[in-house]
Amino acid sequence: MSNSDLIQELCGACGLCCNGAIFADVQLQPRDKETRLRALGLEMKRASHGRGVSKFLQPCAAHDGCRCLIYSERPSYCREFECALLKNVSSGNISRKRALSIIREAKGKLATINKLLARLENSDETLSHRARFNQVTREMKEKKSDQVKRAAFGELTLAVHELNVLIAASFYPGPRE
Questions:
Q1: What are the tens digits of pLDDT across the range 8-19?
Q2: Are 113 and 160 in contact (CB under 8 A)?
């Protein structure tokens, strides 16, 4: 299997780098055309002081399932990014079959998180699960909750932790000890 076929298969099954599971936002590179990306539907934000590099929020507005609706015009970081899972399969450190299993597991954990968030009356999937989890956490601290909601929040907290551990171990591109 060629590397481009492998990328197409794994990325086509995944999408976690675009749906907010791995990143909260993506920094634009100097060669990116912010005006064009805005016109294509990406929501941008700047540093709080109003200067600096723009970022676009995750989940990406151009993410449709596991397809990029602006693939030929996607930002530079998106063109260059390869998660640790893809790198490990490309280098032969793990099998394609195992990688697909890890992807299914991560997507299953994210689906559980989304169900729990909906049960806690937070179903705005235009926001990342992280942002929604933070909203629910604030609400739980500010409002008196019944036992059912507290139990669901406990399940949610554990599910978010489990997904974060899986992402850190299998997908995150940063250095690992």
A1: 899 999 999 999
A2: yes
16 in helix, strand or coil?
coil
CA–CA gap between residue 6 and residue 90 (Å, rounded): 8
Q: Tell me: pLDDT of 62 over 70.
A: yes
User: What pTM did the predictor assign?
Assistant: 0.89
The residues, ordered by sequence, that sit 6+ positions from 29 with a Cβ below 8 Å of its Cβ are 75, 76, 77
Which pair of tokens denotes residue 109?
Answer: 């954990």
And the tokens for 10? 């794994």
63: number of Cβ within 10 Å: 17
* pLDDT tens string 111-123: 999 999 999 999 9
Long-range contacts of 29-36 (CB under 8 A, 24+ apart): 29/75, 29/76, 29/77, 31/76, 32/75, 32/76, 36/73
Dihedral sign (CA 56, 59, 63, 67): positive
Long-range (24+ apart) CB contacts under 8 A made by 92-101 are 96/1, 96/6, 96/9, 96/10, 99/10, 100/9, 100/10, 100/13
> Can you read off the two tokens belonging to residue 17?
């780098």
Sheet holding 44-45, edge to edge: 25-27, 55-57, 44-45
Instruction: Report the alpha-carbon distance of residue 38 to residue 111 in Å, rounded.
Output: 29
